[in-house]
Here is the input.
Amino acid sequence: MKYRLMAVVLVLAGAASALPSWWGTRGLNRVVDARTVGAGRYNVGLFANLGLSGDERTAVIGNEEMEITNTEYDGTGYIVAGFGLGRAAELGLRVNYIVNQMKRDGDSAEISGDWEGDDGFSEATASLKWNINPNANSVWFGIMPWASFALYDGGNSSYVVNGDGWDGIWLNDEGIFELRRPMISAGSFSYGANLLTTFNLDPAALHVNLGYHKFNQSFEYTDLRYNAAHEVTATQDVDIEVEDAVLYTGAGIEYPVGTTTLFAEVEWRHFMDRNYDNGDGEDYDDIIQVAPGVRFNNDGLAIDVTGSFALTDFSPEWSDLGHGIFQSGGTPTEQERADRSPFPQGYAPKMGLGIGLSYTGTFRNPPAEIGGRVYDSETGEALYGTVTASRDDVEPVNTTQEGSYAMEASRGEITLTGSAEGYLPSSETVDLASGGTYTVDFPLTRIETSGVVTGTVTDIATGQPLDAIVSSGSVQAQTGSDGSYSIELPSGNRNLTATASAYGPESAMVNVPAGGSAEHDFQLGLVVDFDKVYFDLDSSVLRRDAKEALDEIAAFLLANPGVSVTITGNTCDLGEEDYNQALAERRAEAVRSYLVSKGVSESRLQTVSYGESRPDAPNTDEEHRALNRRAEFVILGR
Here is the structure.
């Protein structure tokens, strides 16, 4: 009963953590989890985030130049939902509601009014996540393509306008593009994909997202130039499309403490098509935010409280769509205006505060909950192992330090298998009912991991013991003086090979019993191929190359005292046959004498003269005749 309760708690804890991100798919807030919400499960959420930024500006109001600090407020609401399409797939949906407002400085507000802004539903986003789980319950990899469509249903336009007075830069009904987030939507159609990785650090989890995002914004308005008396002195119609390619990096770490989860996230967006630099080395083509938070879980229901801080600086000069160039008397090109266009999705506020409410539940037929232990059948000791299922849609899980595991599966028959290193696996089949709770324990039997193989290595012709090595992989054993060996190997079918100098190797497959012994004898055949020794025409004097070859042959014969050889002398066809017969004998004797001088016993060396009767090549030219002036060796064995 204790472990049944533990399994249920683990399952519920897993369900609570599988809550939606701002994308609708499982995750923290900004960063997406590579894992899915799970088959037969769904989640819904409502998130709100308020950004606050104070920006100092220089304004000319009533022919008077003054320094003002306008305060920008941007609010974002996310309505999200996620659906588990199986063990490895998840669908996420999101609708955004955007609020953009600016509160003027007190001095300027007396002349131009307090507030300006706009709000409305901005975009609908769909995302689809696939993942793989190569290391059981340790690491997940995934990919999440997404697409967004504009839904703007706000006030006067798709960007913030000056609603009630002049602030020194713009007049009534003109766009306020120098704000951090003047746009209600990021364009009519946006798309991208994120690569996802999640590491199980038990109990913490680390998530890393890498993405490529593409945006296309449209701007159509009339830019106006004013003099000191606030009279229009020039106009320019603007109608441009601005494309932005963005490299995205996000990382988040979460650490559960009971029913509370502490987490922190960081985001970095690099705008590849922008090159913002005031000449002081400070760039404005990156946005970096950090966001700590806490999540309170209760049986699938969660409340998130988060904060956010921008680590990069915003410059209104690089977000005014080129109005500053036009106001100063220049004529900005389309490229200059595009370079100074507002960031899609807006620039990060200096600080922000967010709150979220989400719930994870199951569909009409909820999955069954399975839990239990994997342990040593003799000692009861908990084992760190893995529990796998016969269905592809049920993810393998690793046990905890207490040997416990928990998993979910839809109704129907399923076969579970518990395994641990050094133990025989165990399986059990269960017929699951929807919403049921099952305890399946796996008492595993330890595997005896090794056995011993013994035997001898002998000469196949004589039966004499050999000085040999018996090996299997990196494990090897040397034979004794009687040719016997003993080698300890892991149990199972093992390939053994015996090798000895001058003998051909022999291999055999031997079944090594766990905790027992097996016997196998090796018989090796002698394999030696001595180099031939060559002589000059009508000579039995050993050449330098002949002596080098004979030195190696002498070394082998000294190392193998049981081997005897016959030395054969040969000639080409030049000269009388009787003369060649005697010349071949002198050549064989010259070789024998040299080997004896190196310490080889005379009793092991015989000589035979074949004269010109056994040519090695046709005697048709000098090159072939040279191959026939030789001495060869015939192995007689031990």
Notes: Helices lie at 2-17, 106-112, 323-327, 334-339, 544-559, 577-597, 622-628. The first strand starts at residue 41 and ends at 61. The chain has four domains: 2-362, 368-446, 450-524, 533-637. The domain at 450-524 is CATH 2.60.40.1120 (Immunoglobulin-like).
